[in-house]
Design goal:
This protein is of the alpha+beta class and about 375 residues long. The chain has three domains: about 130 residues, 2-Layer Sandwich (Beta-Lactamase), CATH 3.30.450; about 80 residues, no CATH class; about 150 residues, Heat Shock Protein 90. The strands form three sheets. Strands 6-8-9-11-10 form a five-stranded mixed beta sheet. It starts with 6 loop residues before the first helix and ends with a strand.
Length: about 375
């Protein structure tokens, strides 16, 4: 069973996304409905403007009527319109860019745009002549159309910035928690470890079988190494010039003697020696975590291959297992604290490995390739000393 503490978080992300889509859809629907109503109002306004233009010609002697229709024409202060005769000659316009309105080319281009937006309105006069009114959406209507897009973009940017700040804050808090737990673990192990070293000396004085004491001493040294590793989490460790080939092989040799006989562990390299800035203790921990992760992925018999390659200014360390493999969706999540595919485990090994390689050594660790049922390759990339 996969235990992933991020599953609940991902569900909340999807709920937020669906909620945002619903809110956005409602906003667009409401705005578009309002825009449609406003567009109809503007069309009626243009029709009224056209009727007023027609009446100017029909009421030549009715001064009161002429005064009224001129008032109607002057009332159109938003909708851009162009009036032409039946032959296409431009007779007048309103609400266009006054700086460009003297240009015939500009007016013809505006007529083309107006035709693409609305059907022109024909004015029939009693004399049998016709005029044509072209019009387009007002600036107010255009602003209203783009308003929900601008609003949602601003909201999305605000949410993005807030989420980024919150994530960084939470990640920093998590790092402090992991570092605190690691140092406390080192402190707790340190006390009985000192006691064990004292008991070892007492056993030596009692003439206990030396072969037994040698194995006990190895385990004590191992505990001392683990304590040292945990104590370094949370503070930047010192990097020294080390032979990455030798350090890697030492880690592999140590694990070879402690894995099941059903699992074969092999080490390969295309270079005999390669100097890299390393904290050897923490780097060995990474190799051990990757190898143990591969061992846990293998059911029954299998093989673990550790390969060191020198590629220009980089050294590539590939750890390949013949285990059950990973889905592509897990390539990033395997490095998150708490992610594990085992029934037992805290899911901290790969997270610590990523921190050690990327934050402490300035390198990179990735799932290089994986295939379900065939195995996985983790790749560590480090910088070679110039």
């Amino acid at each position: 069973m996969t235990s992933n503490i991020y599953a609940e978080k991902n569900r909340w992300k999807w709920l937020l996304f669906v909620g945002a889509v619903i809110i956005g859809s409602i906003t667009f629907w409401y705005t578009n409905s309002f825009v449609g109503e406003l567009r109809e109002v503007e069309r009626r306004k243009v029709r009224l403007w056209a009727e007023a233009t027609r009446q100017i010609n029909d009421f030549q002697e009715d001064n009161q009527a002429i005064s009224f229709v001129f008032e109607v024409i002057r009332d159109n202060k938003t909708v851009p319109v162009i009036l032409t005769d039946q032959d296409g000659m431009i007779k007048g316009f309103r609400n266009l860019d006054s700086a460009k309105a003297d240009s015939e080319k500009y007016l013809r281009e505006q007529i083309r745009v107006m035709k693409s937006q609305h059907e022109p309105i024909i004015i029939d006069y009693d004399s049998g002549n016709q005029d044509v009114i072209y019009y387009k959406d007002s600036i107010l209507l255009l602003k209203l159309q783009y308003f929900p897009i601008i609003m949602l973009t601003v909201i999305a940017l605000f949410i993005g910035v807030a989420y980024y700040a919150f994530s960084n804050s939470r990640r920093s808090e998590q790092n402090r928690v992991w570092a605190g737990m690691a140092r406390e673990t080192a402190h707790q192990i340190g006390t009985p470890l000192s006691s064990l070293m004292g008991w070892l000396e007492i056993l030596r004085s009692q003439s206990v079988d030396e072969s037994i004491l040698t194995e006990v001493e190895k385990d004590i040294r191992r505990l001392d190494t683990i304590t040292d590793r945990f104590s370094k989490i949370g503070s930047r460790p010192n990097l020294k010039e080390n032979d990455v080939v030798e350090v890697t092989q030492n880690a592999v040799d140590y694990l070879k003697r402690r894995v099941s006989s059903k699992i074969k562990v092999e080490f390969y390299t295309n270079v005999t020696s390669l100097i890299v800035p390393l904290n050897a203790s923490l780097y060995e921990w990474v190799i051990e975590n990757l190898v143990k992760n591969g061992i846990d992925a293998i059911t029954g018999e299998g093989q673990i291959t550790v390969e060191v390659q020198h590629m220009g200014s980089k050294v590539l360390i590939d750890v390949t297992d013949t285990g059950k493999g990973l889905r592509k969706s897990q390539f990033q999540t395997v490095f998150r604290p708490g992610f594990t595919t085992k029934k037992r485990g805290w899911g901290l090994g790969l997270s610590l490995a990523k921190r050690i390689i990327e934050e402490y050594h300035g390198g990179k660790i990735i799932v290089y390739r994986s295939e379900k049922g065939k195995g996985t390759t983790f790749r560590v990339t480090l910088n070679v000393t110039a």
